[in-house]
Amino acid sequence: MPTAALPLAEIGLMAILDTIYLLLGVISGAHVPPVLTVILIQTTIPLTACFTQFFHPDGRCVVNCQNRRLSPATNNDGVISPENYDRLDLTMQTNYLSVHTISSCFSSMYSDPNNPNSAPVKGWGGLSRYHIAGTCLMFLAIFIGLIPAVLSLHHLFITVLDAMPDRTAFNTIVFCFAAIPATMSQLYKEHTLTRLRQPIDRDSLNMVLSIFQLVVALCISPIAYCLQGMGTGIGWEELYPSKGMSTNFLNGLRCALGSLDTDTMEHGYEEEAECQYSAGLILLHVLSIIMVGVAIDKLAMSTKIMYRGVSMGIIFAVIFMFWVQRQNEWVQYGPLVNCLHILSTIVLIVGAEIYHRVSLVDASFETVYPEVENFYEDDEK
């Protein structure tokens, strides 16, 4: 099947959004409590459900804006003028038919006929009751997870034993808000593919997007390098000046190869470097990305199995991160913070399980093919 040419301008914007998310997530994530990294990284799921309401044809904001724009004129007494009755009736019928057609199509394709809660709710951007309930619970879990950081940052209603350092609290909030560009990128990708309405080679798209991300990262690295001092107070930008980026890059390679000297590891930077397991962690990260890609391809038609795996992955990841957290003194908190983290994890797992009970409506389009030229036109003349 022929594929469309890659939209380079749109891919460039996707790369910018993805790179901003990655840089903010990696830089701030180094100072986020391990358990919260598992919880807050799920923020993109409920955010996507919310942002969809602004762009989906049946989204809350889109429908409300259409109703306001198409509302009939009234006289001074607030009564609809007679000449607008016909337009009002036609508008209501058209609106009802379009929304009803979309909802009926989505219901027949993606809902379980034996479960009315799986059908998309009219006016909610293709979301079912499961999706809405799961979104609310996941937002609640994220809010619970952020409570210690917000209270610590403002020194409100929290003891010294339970309080996070200002740097940890600040970076935890930044890590959560990094999900905004990630969500925007995800929705923009869907919008671009739907607008083109032609098949695109997935491997070529991923390769070009990765190259663009690398170029964007190289361009904004001098600025991002300074962000490593976020949350340390006045003069935080001087902890990691841009002029030291090239030296840091070389030291990072030496750290990964295990050849960085001990003096630089202990006294070269604001934080002590740990290079013992860096090479293994890099390989494990690359291997996990490959395994996730293969698993998605194999389980593309078995979404329930895939999402069960996601839920189990969250559980095991939180248990492992709790163990890691107990091994590090800088993330030793009191019982209040630990209880909030456990409560947030439970609510998140329940919310994710409810959210993934029904598959989301995939972006679909009717392929538009180029018009075939009339080869017999000259003969007819």
How would you sum up the major sheet?
Answer: none
Beta content comes to: under 5%
Integer count of domains: 1
Helix and strand pattern? HHHHHHHHHHHHHHH
Low-pLDDT ranges: 72-111
Average pLDDT level: 76
Helices, by number, come to 15
Radius of gyration: 26 Å
Tertiary shape = globular
Give the N-terminus to C-terminus distance in angstroms.
Answer: 34 Å
Structural class: mainly alpha
Strand segment tally? 0
The helical percent reads: 55-70%
Protein traits:
mainly alpha, 381 residues
Structure description:
The chain is built from 15 helices and no strands. It is mostly helical and 381 residues long. It has one domain. Helix 3 crosses helix 8 and helix 6 runs antiparallel to helix 7. It is globular, with a radius of gyration of 26 Å. The two termini are 34 Å apart.
In short:
The protein is mainly alpha-helical and 381 residues long. Helices cover 65% and strands 0% of the residues.
Topology:
Layout: H1 8-29, H2 34-40, H3 44-55, H4 60-69, H5 85-110, H6 129-154, H7 166-177, H8 179-196, H9 202-226, H10 245-257, H11 262-267, H12 278-298, H13 303-326, H14 335-355, H15 377-380
